[in-house]
Amino acid sequence: MFKIKKILRESLLNEIKFGINELPQNTILINNHHNLTLYNLDYLKSEDPLEGVLGHVSMLFEGNYASIDQVAAIKGYGPFMYELSAQYAYPGGLQSSRDANTNDKAIRMWEYFTKNSDSLGIDLEILEPNDDGYVECNERGCVEDFPNLFKMINTAIYCSDTNDLYSLTNVGEEFIEDEGEKLRDLISGYGNAFFNDKY
Asked: Where do the structural domains in the chain lie, given as residue ranges?
């Protein structure tokens, strides 16, 4: 199944995409108040520890849904960060940014997940106008003007296979337990700085 997902990622997005099997050996996932930072510990004591950040995502929770607030990843790790986010949101759904804070690359990523949900093992929920969390207008416009964009905005993805999330998080929690809680804030701070550098 992992190879099928990798082939699909690469063929559908026309670039190499990495998953859990391609991570550097000393990679952990740090969770700090709905901020997930995928980090390669080989860089923790280097001159530039920001180079250890493979991806970072922060989410906002409202009702049964989490929405992407910020996301950034080095080339190849974007889809995996979205997958980890959907796993983290489960049993709730993951939605794109609720405002207009979604760039074109993120829109393409979201389209990839919604168009290929069956082959990726992801369930979809398409919100209707009377549902909680439905967005009719934002800074980009309204549903009437951009129906495809708002269909994406009003779609939640569900990923019940949370093995990758728990595997990486457990290693991260063991590291924090051994090395001290202050490193949770430090690595999460690197994730935030990484996002700010990208945007």
From this structure: 2-198
